[in-house]
Amino acid sequence: MNTENGRMYILAAWSLIAGLTIFRIFYSGAFLLVADETNYWQWGRQLALGYHDNSPMIGWAIRLSTELLGQTETAVRLPSILSMSVACLFLVAMARRYISPAAAFNTALLTQGILEFNVGGLLATTDALQAAGWAGASYFVIRGYESGKWSHWLLAGFWFGFGILSKYTMVIFLPGAYIFGILSKEHRKQLFSIRPYIGLFLGFLMFFPVVYWNAVNGWKSVRHVAHIGGANESFALHIKYFGDYLGSQAALLSPLVFLLVIFAWINVFRKDGQQWIYKYLFWTSFPMFAMFAILSLHTRVYGNWPGAGYLTASVLAAAFYARRKSSKGERPGIGQRIWPWANVTSYLLTAVLLAHVVWPILPLPKHLDRVASETIGWKHLGRNAEIAMKTMPRQDRTFLFGDSYQLASELAFYTPGQPQTVSINKWRRPNVYDYWWEDKDILGWDAVGVTIDSKDHKTKLIEVFERVDDPIKVEAFRDPIFGKAKRSREPANVFYIYRAYGFKGGLRWQPKNKSDIRAAGR
Question: Is 0.90 topped by the overall pTM?
Answer without folding.
Answer: yes
